[in-house]
Predict the structure of Hydrogenase maturation factor HypA.
Amino acid sequence: MHEMAICESLLDSLRDAARDHGFARVTRVRLSVGQFAGVEVEALRFGFDVVMRGSLAENADLVVLEEPGTAWCFDCSTTVSLPDRLAPCPLCGGGRLRPNGGTDLRIKDLEVV
């Protein structure tokens, strides 16, 4: 379950930010998770609760903003929303697609004390 490793990396980022910006606690973390990022949101939530125990983000709220997956269709030269990464273009049925959105996991913002 790589979501635990993601949460451990997130904790490292929170510690770095606390050191750089002088805060002691994180009360809320908002993450943007792309549909094509390969992240199971429920596993991420579980990992967050486990990894943040005893840290500056213990009991912090995790808000996950799910971003839709999009891709460029080479057949009809259009960016389209896709239900999954392997779906054909919903406009022309073409299969030559390059994902161009919904592939990232990012920290949107933090609420700190």
